[in-house]
Write a structure and sequence with these properties.
The protein is built from six helices and no strands. The longest helix has 24 residues, at about 95-115. It has about 120 residues and is an all-alpha fold. About 75% of the residues lie in helices and about 0% in strands. Helix 2 (about 20-25) crosses helix 3 and helix 2 crosses helix 4. It has helices at about 1-15, 20-25, 30-40, 45-55, 70-90, 95-115. It is elongated, with a radius of gyration of 18 Å.
Length: about 120
């Protein structure tokens, strides 16, 4: 359930185009703790904190439990990242350094190609 709540808070925050820091300041908690909440690493979050977050985002606490499809999206994303990390770990360090150097250029190229479609 923490993962659902965290993902939902992140989605609502991004919908408002707020940074974690902006939301944390509105809730009067640290940016670090806000990040932990969104990543479901915060343990049990107090009702008081959840209420403050809901108030800042102008939603009810019940809203945090909605959109369970976010979990499926997040799990698919994690699987892709894990597969990519496995490939990277098999590279020799020299090749990995070169790949890191060219990756921003590759990403820009992919973005350009996508924009052409």
């Amino acid at each position: 359930m923490r993962e659902i709540v965290g993902l939902r808070i992140r989605k609502l925050r991004k919908k408002r185009k707020w940074s974690q820091k902006e939301l944390a300041e509105r809730v009067t908690i640290s940016k670090t703790y806000m990040g932990m909440i969104e990543r479901a690493e915060a343990g049990n979050i107090s009702y008081d904190i959840l209420t403050k977050i809901a108030t800042a985002l102008d939603v009810t606490i019940e809203e945090f439990g909605r959109n369970t499809d976010l979990i499926e999206e997040n799990n698919a994303h994690r699987l892709l990242l894990a597969e990519y990390m496995d490939m990277l770990q098999q590279l020799d360090p020299v090749l990995l350094k070169e790949l890191i150097k060219v990756t921003p250029h590759l990403l820009e190229s992919f973005k350009y190609i996508r924009s052409m479609k």
